[in-house]
Design goal:
- The chain has 335 residues and is of the alpha/beta class.
- The chain contains 14 helices and eight strands.
- The chain has one domain: Metal-dependent hydrolases (TIM Barrel, Alpha-Beta Barrel), CATH 3.20.20.140.
- Strands 1-2-3-4-5-6-7-8 form an eight-stranded parallel beta sheet.
- α7 links the parallel β4 and β5.
- α4 packs across α5 and α6 runs parallel beside α7.
- It starts with a helix and ends with a helix.
- The relative contact order is 0.15.
- The model has no long low-confidence stretch (mean pLDDT 97).
- The structure holds guanosine-5'-monophosphate.
- Guanosine-5'-monophosphate binds next to β3.
C-alpha cells in the first residue's frame, strides 16, 4: 500500500546483519560459493516459523557470509539504501562489532566500516539520517561488554555524532544481565544512550527488574513486561514511571514464536495505555519484511485508522537517540 511506503518513518530497532536483503545475500553467496550457503538458510519466509534458537542459528550463517571489510561496507550501504527506499527518514542501525582472524577484520575496523557506509550514503545524497548503536552480545560476558563500551565511547567522540548509543542483544537464554551491569552503567555515565533487549522470553523478569534500575533509554521487545503477558508489578511500574519507549517488532516475534499470533502481540496493551510504542523491523532480511509492511500489519491487526498510523509514526521521533536539534528538525520536516 502506497500510504505506508510514503509515510515518513523512523526505524529504531534494526540489526545490521539481520537486515540483509535477498539481493545482497545473493551477492554475498556469489563472493563465497565455497560455503555452500543457500537462501533458505538466511531467511524465514512467509508463513514459516522457527524457534528463537533456530533464529540465532540463522545469524551464524549470515556472519559466515559477512566477514570482511568489503562485505560490511556493501551490506551496510545496501541496508541503508533499502530503508531509504521504503520511506525511512531516520534510521538507527545496530550491530555487534566482530573480529575475524582469518580476514584481518578487527572490531575497530568493523565500526569504522559501518561509519564509512553511513558517510558514503550521505555524500551520495541518500535521503535518510542514519545513526549507529554499538551492540553488546550478551553471550560474550563482562569483559567483552566493557571493551565494547570503551570502543563505543571512542567513536562517540570521533564519529561526528554518528555513534549515539549501546544495544544489548544476543540469545536471551544465555548469560545474565547482572554480569553486564557495570559495562552498561559505564556507558550511561559517559553519555551513550542505552537500548536493551528485555524480557524477550518469560524467564527474564528478574534480570529485567535489575536492568530497569539503570534505567535504559529504550527497551527492545519487552515481550513479557506487561501484566497481561505475565509481567510483575515491579517491572511494569519501572517501565511506566520512567516512560521508557518500547521498540516493538511484530513479525519478528511471531516468526520467532515468542508471541503466538499478530493479534496477541503485546503492542496492543502498551498502545492502549498510550505508552510510547515504536513499530520496528528487528531483522527485515531474516524475517522477510520492511517497515511499511510492519505499520500496515499493526494497522490491520489492531484496527488503526490512517490518522492513528500517522500519529504513531510521528511519535517515534520523540524516541530517537540523536540530539534534540535533530529531533526538532525531523519534526519540522514532517510537519
Ligand atoms: P549483527 O549484530 O551481527 O549486525 O546482527 C545480528 C545479531 O543481532 C545477532 O547475532 C544477535 O546478537 C542480534 N539479534 C538480532 N535479532 C535479535 C533478536 O530478535 N533478539 C536478540 N536478543 N538479539 C537479536
Amino acid at each position: 500500500d502506497v500510504f505506508y511506503r510514503e509515510l515518513p518513518k523512523v526505524e529504531l530497532h534494526a540489526h545490521l546483519n539481520g537486515s540483509v536483503s535477498f539481493e545482497t545475500i545473493e551477492k554475498l553467496i556469489g563472493r563465497k560459493p565455497h560455503l555452500n550457503i543457500e537462501h533458505g538458510m538466511t531467511a524465514i519466509g512467509k508463513g514459516q516459523r522457527r524457534t528463537l534458537d533456530e533464529c540465532f542459528q540463522v545469524f551464524k550463517v549470515i556472519h559466515q557470509l559477512v566477514d570482511t571489510e568489503e562485505d560490511i561496507l556493501m551490506v551496510a550501504t545496501d541496508v541503508i539504501k533499502e530503508f531509504a527506499a521504503d520511506g525511512v527518514k531516520y534510521l538507527e542501525l545496530r550491530s555487534t562489532p566482530r573480529e575475524e582472524k582469518s580476514t584481518g577484520l578487527t572490531k575497530k575496523r568493523y565500526i569504522e566500516t559501518v561509519i564509512k557506509a553511513i558517510q558514503q550514503c550521505k555524500n551520495e545524497g541518500v535521503d535518510i539520517d542514519v545513526r549507529f548503536l554499538v551492540a553488546i552480545d550478551r553471550r560474550n560476558g563482562t569483559e567483552v561488554a566493557v571493551e565494547t563500551v570503551k570502543l563505543a565511547k571512542e567513536f562517540m567522540r570521533s564519529s561526528d555524532g554518528l555513534v549515539v548509543g549501546i544495544d544489548l542483544s544476543g540469545d536471551p537464554t544465555v548469560g545474565h544481565g547482572k554480569d553486564l551491569l557495570p559495562a552498561l552503567q559505564m556507558a550511561k555515565n559517559c553519555g551513550l544512550k542505552l537500548s536493551l533487549h528485555l524480557s524477550e522470553i518469560q524467564s527474564q523478569l528478574e534480570e529485567s527488574d535489575l536492568l530497569l534500575d539503570l534505567p535504559p533509554d529504550r527497551i527492545g521487545h519487552g515481550t513479557f513486561l506487561h501484566p497481561e503477558m505475565g509481567g510483575s508489578p515491579s517491572v511494569f511500574d519501572k517501565v511506566v514511571k520512567n516512560n521508557i519507549p518500547l521498540e516493538l517488532c511484530l513479525t519478528s516475534n511471531v516468526k520467532g514464536q515468542t508471541v503466538p499470533s499478530y493479534s496477541k502481540h503485546h503492542f496492543k496493551y502498551w498502545y492502549q495505555l498510550g505508552h510510547p510504542s515504536v513499530i520496528c523491523t528487528d531483522d527485515k532480511g531474516v524475517f522477510c519484511t520492511d517497515l511499511s509492511q510492519e505499520y500496515q500489519l499493526a494497522a490491520s491487526t489492531f484496527g488503526l485508522s490512517r490518522e492513528a498510523v500517522w500519529e504513531l509514526s510521528q511519535q517515534a521521533i520523540d524516541c530517537i537517540f540523536a540530539p534534540d536539534a535533530v529531533k526538532a528538525a525531523a519534526q519540522t520536516e514532517v510537519d
